[in-house]
Amino acid sequence: MQCAHPSPPAILLVDDDPAMLQILLCFMRKRRATIDIVAVADGTHALDQLAQRLIPLLVTDYNLPGMSGIQLARFAKIQRPGTRVVLISGEALDTNISGIDYYLAKPFSLSDFQQIVDSVLR
Question: Could you tell me which residues come within 8 angstroms of residue 110 by beta carbon, excluding any fewer than 6 positions away?
């Protein structure tokens, strides 16, 4: 009989823009070599990841196919209450949205992004 081993913790990146997802993925892999970085293009795949592993940090775009980043954040907080959520949006949004820990307005600098990631993962 084999024992199932849970997947290791991971940072989850969610964006339906392949270019943005690739930029964030490459950036995070260079700076966070000791933690898995998972990138998906929609909320459904993000929910699958949240169900399978511990996600200390979820970075999600606001506009996603099938559900908004806010809806994803709320589901994430129900499944994994300790998950911190960074919402990225090109639209002006209320920054006091329930379930969102940090808000980044597009365009943003990678140094601003890094500061948020560092503060969450301390």
Answer: 23, 27
pTM of the shown model:
0.89
- How far is it, in rounded angstroms, from Cα 3 to Cα 60? 32
Q: How many CB atoms lie within 10 A of CB 104?
A: 16
Calculate the dihedral angle through the C-alpha atoms of 30, 81, 120, 92, rounding to the nearest 10 degrees: 90
pLDDT tens figures, 35-66: 899 999 999 999 999 999 999 999 999 999 98
User: Number of C-alpha atoms within 13 angstroms, CB side, residue 99?
Assistant: 18
Q: Which of 23, 60, 22, 57 is nearest to 44 (CA)?
A: 60
Give the residue from 119, 46, 42 showing the smallest Cα distance to 79: 46
pLDDT at 120: 82
The CATH code that applies to domain 10-120 is: 3.40.50.2300
CA atoms within 13 A of residue 75's CA, in its CB half-sphere: 16
Mean pLDDT of the 69-88 span: 93
